[in-house]
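Example 5.3 — Carrier domain-containing protein
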Amino acid sequence: MNTQSIATIAANVMYIDDISEIEFSRSLFNDYSMSSLDFVDFAFELKSESAKDFTPDQLWPINSMMDNPEFYQAGQWTEAGKAQLTTIFEGFHPITDDQLSAEALHNLFSVDYVQHRLAQI
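Solution (predicted structure tokens):
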């Protein structure tokens, strides 16, 4: 699925009239205020349009990983969590220790990331 198609779905879900307002590298969560409900709608629209079978948690596994003590404990990523993050973002964006906060990771949720992630699923 190409970035234009992904951006179109995002714009429709978030009621953005002009798709050219969406920059593919900017965070859909932080820069465009995608809500959790928008995200679920976005994931299901992507699933339908891409003909790939995935859940919202597979598209953006960070939240569910933070609920799993194998990956995240006492406000810190475990070694297994860091390894999983490296796998998720491999080929898209290197993950360093200063990018492990929820907000820093949310900054990576962009149209470009979604295209990358769909290729992984």
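Remark. The mean pLDDT is 95.
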